[in-house]
Amino acid sequence: MRQAVWCTLFGSKNATMEKLHLLSFATTLGGGVLLWLIEGVVPFFSAQADRGRHAALNLSLAAVNLAILLPGSLLMAVFLEYSVRLWPGIRGFELPIVAQTLLILLLIDLWMYLWHRLNHTVDFFWRFHSVHHSDPALDVTSSWRFHSVEIFFSESLKLPVFALIGADIGDVLLYSMLMTPVIEFHHSNVSIPEALDRALRAVIPTPFMHRIHHSVLRSEHDSNYGSMLSVWDRLFGSYRMKTSIRNMPLGLENESAPDQQRLRALLLRPFRN
Ligand SMILES: [Zn+2]
Q1: How far, in Å, is the centroid of ligand 1 from the Cα of 167?
Q2: What is the separation of C-alpha 206 from the centre of its chain, rounded to a whole number of angstroms?
Q3: Each residue of 2-25: pLDDT tens digit?
Q4: How far apart are the CA of 9 and the centre of ligand 1, in A?
Q5: Which of 71, 111, 185, 255 is deepest in the core (most CB within 10 A)?
Q6: Cα(157) to centroid of ligand 1, in Å?
Q7: CA dist., res. 75 & res. 84, Å (int)
Q8: Three-state DSSP class for 190?
Q9: How many Å lie between the centroid of ligand 1 and the Cα of residue 137?
Q10: What is the whole-number distance in angstroms between the Cα of residue 246 and the centre of ligand 1?
Q11: CA 71 to ligand 1 center in whole angstroms
Q12: CB-CB contact of 163 with 63 (8 Å)
């Protein structure tokens, strides 16, 4: 039944997966390029020194991570193909197919919230996640700046969690297609009217909200963990707002100096002391 719905939309199952892969890739790349262009014209923080150099570093980290993400996504597709036959998860409930899919997307987003929060509360995970937070500036390329070990754990832990939920690779691709542009948007340096940001953050974590998550102060960066939906922060008490963030320092104390912003330094940093 479920496959029948996908296939009505896209054709055979293989064609469906191929199209979802392409759409997911297109929204990531298209959203990234579009936001990069817009933040160049209407930036929120105008004092960013060298956008090209900043992007080159963040994209270098992203390129290293592709070595994990590409085989990881193939492994996940095969793993979920089998796991869903053994354990239906949400699929086992007597619910309409659309409700099942929405529930699965919600639970995946809840896991993303919890995983992000764990990265801030467990010292071992923070060691790697702090590389993301050591970025002294924020723009769309910051959304791709992660240490490879964090990516490894993030991708590995998704396997049992997604299997438990009953997600298949179609659900994962659909989630990625919806979540990635939101992640790119809230990391971006695009300046949007405050009223629009306020309205949007009723549903998604916005640039204003996520900039607080990148504040140099721990009391501020231990907040606003949401990926696609802002509801989890409100529900679990981690939602934080400020009246103004215009002069708020970004990054981490003693971790965001120019000589620390090099690929080798960032890759080695979690293994020091
Ligand atoms: Zn974080």
Answers
A1: 25
A2: 13
A3: 555 555 555 566 777 778 888 888
A4: 36
A5: 185
A6: 17
A7: 14
A8: strand
A9: 14
A10: 20
A11: 25
A12: no
Q: How far apart are CA 141 and CA 216, in angstroms?
A: 19
Residue 38 dihedral angles phi and psi, to the nearest 5°: -65, -45
Residues 6 or more apart whose CB falls under 8 angstroms from that of 202 comprise: 230
Query: 259 CA distance to ligand 1 centroid (A)?
Result: 22
Q: How far is the CA of 225 from the centre of ligand 1 (A)?
A: 6
Task: Give the residue carrying structure tokens 């619910």.
Answer: 95
Q: Which residues of 89-100 are buried (b: 16+ CB within 10 A; e: fewer)?
A: bbbeeeeeeeeb
**Rounded CA separation 140/225 (Å):** 17
The model's pLDDT over 89-98, given as tens digits with 9 standing for 90+, comes to 999 999 999 9
Q: Residue 266 corresponds to which amino acid?
A: L
85 neighbors 168 (Cβ within 8 angstroms): no
Q: Would you say residue 75 has pLDDT above 90?
A: yes
